[in-house]
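Good morning C.,

I know you're traveling, so I'll keep this short. The sequence:
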Amino acid sequence: MPRLLGVEIPAKKKVAFSLRYIYGIGPARADQVIQEAGIDPNTRANDLTEEQLNKILHVITEHKWVVEGDLRRE
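The tokens, ready to paste straight into the viewer:
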């Protein structure tokens, strides 16, 4: 299973649906992340390369979105 921001996302689902398992990322943000990272929306999470995972993390941190533990604390 791919791991992003300390969360294991489902490997067999499409990336747009897998990203929603990260607390703070919903359907709109998941679509925005995929578009900005230049990833095909039909790609399964287990088919992502390390480079694509890094692009996803870069997009999330670039926007300074509060997700996971920081969001739960608020």
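Safe travels,
E.
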